[in-house]
Amino acid sequence: LGIHVHNDAECAVANSLAAVAEGVGQVQGTMNGFGERCGNANLVSLIPSLVLKLRLDCIPESTLRELRDVSRFVSELANRKPWDAQPYVGDSAFAHKGGMHVSAVLKHPNTYEHIDPAAVGNHRRVLISELAGKSNVLWKAREYGIDLDQETPETRRILDRLKQLEDEGFQFEGAEASFELLMERALGRHKPYFELDAYRVIVEEESADDEPVAEATVRVRVKGMLEHTAAAGNGPVNALDHALRKALEQFYPNLREMRLLDYKVRILDESKGTAAKTRVLVTSGDERETWGTVGVANNIIEASWRALVDSVEYKLRADERRGAAS
Q1: What is the maximum alpha-carbon separation in the chain?
Q2: What share of the chain is helix, strand, coil (3-state, %, to 5)?
């Protein structure tokens, strides 16, 4: 006897589990719940529930630890973005934000987490937000390999800087690479890989029928040398990204493997119209990982520049760490 259900009423997983409890021996479903109409029973939720909750011998627990990777692989094949809030395997499934909340998780994880995240190949995440406290900062410091104590002046300095930037409109919840750089700068450990001398962006449109052409010029100092480059792009931000990387790639060839994956803009004080402050979130990646950075300024080009610079600096810092570790 088996069961095959669809998720039209958001009950596919619940109905499948209820059927197993009543003696059904076969459950049909799909990875990530992909299927017609609202989808099928989601095996990514069903399998760990059967193994870890009902203690049924479906698959070995060693195989279960590959669940997140398999879920991501299927999403990639389907050309679908992974769902952050997906139970068990999503990025937000074991994410913690509030300071008291994080403090409790550090002491007794099972008070907030229904399973060990590693059992399904996931991991705990501590977010940096307006609710962050010392516990969040200490957790992130440990994650970044920085030794901090709750009562040290350095911790207070980081919290003060975080509060100052958040008052200016920065948000680090989706920009943890920028937060890591913030910590290193606050601790005096930041190593600049290049210094901006000047940049300029021009957008030209020869006629109403032509597409606008964007060109960026960047002048940076790298390893004691002044590098002056220009590049065109699909819009001013894309041109700026191309010009910056063109200037740096001869010094840091690994930047060729870096890609800008996502770009989001938010107007912070809409009542000011075109004079409003802008927040830009950039997601970048290479063959090993993805990371997010943030920039805030009174114009979109400057905000984008700050986010792009953080993204490049994080990439170079990560490569240097990997080189030192290898």
Answers
A1: 74
A2: 45, 20, 35
pLDDT tens for each residue of 53-112: 999 988 998 999 999 999 999 998 898 888 989 999 998 898 877 666 777 777 788 888
Q: Which of 9, 3, 315 is nearest to 177 (CA)?
A: 315
Domain boundaries defined on the chain: 2-75, 95-167, 194-251
String of DSSP letters for 253-310: GGGGG-EEEEEEEEES-GGGGGG--EEEEEEEE-SS-EEEEEEEESSHHHHHHHHHHH
- Tell me what pLDDT residue 160 has: 79
CATH code assigned to 194-251: 3.30.160
Q: What is the pTM of this model?
A: 0.66
Asked whether 297 and 267 are in contact (CB, 8 A), the reply is no
Q: How many CB atoms within 10 Å of residue 209?
A: 6
For residue 216, give the 3-state DSSP assignment. Answer: strand
pLDDT reported for residue 76: 86
Give dist(CA 122, CA 92) in Å, integer.
10
Strands 213-222 and 225-233: antiparallel
Distance CA 40, CA 209 (A): 48
